[in-house]
Amino acid sequence: MTTLSLLLALPLAAQAPAPKAPMPAVAEPTVGVAMDGTYQWVVGQFIGAAEAMPEDKFDWAPTQGEFKGVKTFAQQVKHVAAVNFAFGAIILGEKPQGDMATIEMGPDSLKTKAEIVKYMKDSFAYARKAIQSITAQSGCKPMKNPFGQGPDFTPIGMATLLSFHGMDHYGQMVEYLRMNGIVPPASRPKPMS
Question: pTM score > 0.90 for this model?
Fold first, then answer.
């Protein structure tokens, strides 16, 4: 090869792409991290609905027809939060705080929307920590039924229960929002990109 042809070939060689390094292997998520991926959706829907209710309607509950005696909007939020804390503790192998009345209705000391929303957000963070702790080894380990009767639970079962329990009450909260003329955040039109 002549010097001239060698000099002409240098720019072409400089433009050739370098060989790509292999992509690093991505570790599979743990059982808990995978379950938390779904649970995050519950958290987002629930928090959005709770924050959408105005302060002056937070203690509202329908009273006509088949709604007589139901929990107020605030009580729905407190109840789910208290259960999140209790079931999260069970998954983590800790003792739940409070008695069954506290688990059913949440702490009596929480009165304002801000206090209840903070309690709710803290409960979801704690529940997510508990769910993320589940491993393939611990996920199917039998646990005493927290309701005292019926079959034993497993950490995976408790995590599943946290999801559908939150969404059950979310459905009730959506009704309360709509009865007060509020479109739930999850049902609002999304802006076009």
Answer: no
